[in-house]
Amino acid sequence: MTIQLHDTLRGKKVRFEPQEAGEVTMYLCGPTVYNYAHIGNARPAVVFDLLARVLRRRYKLTFARNITDVDDKINAASIETGRPIDDITAHYIKAYNDDMAALGVQPPDVEPRATQHIDVMIAMIESLVEKGFAYVAEGHVLFDVSSFERYGELSKRDLREMIAGSRVEVAPYKKSAHDFVLWKPSTAELPGWDSPWGRGRPGWHIECSAMAEKHLGKTIDIHAGGQDLVFPHHENERAQSRCAHDGAPFARYWLHNGFLSLNETKMSKSLGNVLLVHDMIETIPGEVIRLALLSAHYRQPLDWSAATIESARRMLDRLYGAVRGISVSDEARRAATVPDALLEALEDDLNTPRALAEVFALARALNKANEENEKQSLAAQLYACGELMGLLGDDPEQWFAGHVEGDMPAAEIEALIEERNAAKAERDFKRADAIRDQLQAAGVSIQDSRSGTTWRRGG
Ligand code: AMP
Ligand code: ZN
C-alpha cells in the first residue's frame, strides 16, 4: 500500500512519491497574525497536522508552516487600535500556537516568519526582474502574468478569458489587470525595508515562494492550504517560483481543504458569525473540536453547528468509555500497533471518516471482550490509534469527570507560564519546575519551543 493524495493540479487522486527517497518536504500557508484564528482557520492546521503525523510514520518529514507578519491587514489593525505592529504580531503568533496546541496540533519543524526573510524575497524579485518575468513601475515591482504561459493551470483558469472578462479598475502602473505585486512602496509610517526599488514591503504571494525555497528547496513535495488559496495565492506562488527557478516544478502535489461554514452560512466578521478557537476552548475540550474537524473528509465542505460538537463529544465518550477502567501496562502499550485498516484509510488521501469507522470497530470489539489479555491488547491498540490521530490523550476518569467545569482558567495558566519563564530567565529552576508540576497537577501539559511555550489540557 502506498500513500495516495488528491492533487489539485492533476485534478485527481494520485500515488504519492517524494522527490527524494525516504524524505518529504511539506509547506502549509499559515496565519496572518492580526487576530485570533477562527474555526475555519483551524481546519487546515488540524487536517494537515494529521497528514504530517501519517507521513512521519514512513518518511523523514520537514514540515514548514509560515507566519505572515507583514500585511496590510496588520497595518490597518495597528492604526485602528494604536497598538505597535510588533505587539500585535507577537500576541497573535503566541495565541495561534497556543490555540492550535489545544487542538492537538504539533508544532511544525520550521515556522518561518515573513519579516525575517525579506532578503530572500528581494533576491527572488531581483531574479524575476532580471529574467524578464517582472517589471518595475512607480516604486512597485509587478509580476507579468503574460510572461508565464502556464499561468492559470493550477486554478484551471484561462488567462485570455480572464482578461476579456475583467471589469476591474486597473492601477495605472500595471500592464495588465492580473499582474500582481511583488514589492510595493511604504510611506514613513508603514513598515518598510530598503530595496533596489526604494523603501517598501513585499506582496503576500512572494513571501511563501521565498520561505519555501529557503527552508525546503526549489521543488517541494507537498504544498497545502485552504481551497480559497488556489487562486490567486497558489497560482501566483507557482508562477513566481517556476519562473525564478528556470521552470523547475514548484510543488509536486497540491492539497487543498474544503471550506467550513457555520450553521449553513459563510463565516464572516461583518455578519457577526465567527467562532474563535480561543473562545471555544474555554468551554469545549480541544479533542472534541479536533475530532469534529476530522469527522468529515478534508476535501469536503464541513458545516459547523452545535450538533457537530455534540456528535464529536458523544464519539469521544464512546472511545473513552471503551478504555475506561482498563489500566494498560506499559508493556502492552509498547507492543500495540495501529491496525492496518486504519493506516490504509489515512494513507488513502486522508480518509478520516473511514479511519474513524475503524477506530469505532476497535472500540466495539473492546466492549465485547471478556478476557483480560484481550482487553489490554485492544485498549492498547485503541490508544495507539488515538496517539496517531491526536485523540484519547486524556485520562478516561478525568474525561468523564466533566473536566471542563473544574479546569484551571486559561488566563491563570498563562499567568503561571509567564511566571515560569521569568523564573527560568532568573535561573530559578526550582520555582520553574514547581510551576510545571502545579500545571501538570491541574491537567495542563506544557511544551517549550523556540517560539515560546504552548500548553494544552490533558496529555
Ligand atoms: P487566512 O488567515 O485567511 O489566510 O487563512 C488561514 C488558512 O485558513 C488558509 O489556509 C485558509 O484557506 C483557511 N481558511 C480560512 N477560512 C476557512 C474556512 N471557512 N474553512 C476552511 N479553511 C479556511
Ligand atoms: Zn502561501
Attribute tags:
binds adenosine monophosphate, Four Helix Bundle (Hemerythrin (Met), subunit A), four-stranded parallel beta sheet, 14 strands, single chain, Rossmann fold, alpha/beta
Short description:
By secondary structure, the chain is an alpha/beta fold. It has 17 helices and 14 strands.
> How would the global form be characterised?
globular
Poorly predicted spans: none
Average pLDDT figure: 93
| Helix content bin | 40-55%
CATH second-level architecture of the largest domain: 3-Layer(aba) Sandwich
Tally of structural domains? 3
| Widest sheet: strand ordering | 4-3-9-10
CATH topological fold name of the largest domain = Rossmann fold
Distance between the termini: 31 Å
Number of helices: 17
Largest sheet: 4 strands, parallel
- Strand content bin: 15-25%
Number of strands: 14
Hetero compounds: adenosine monophosphate, zinc ion
Instruction: Return Rg in Å.
Output: 24 Å
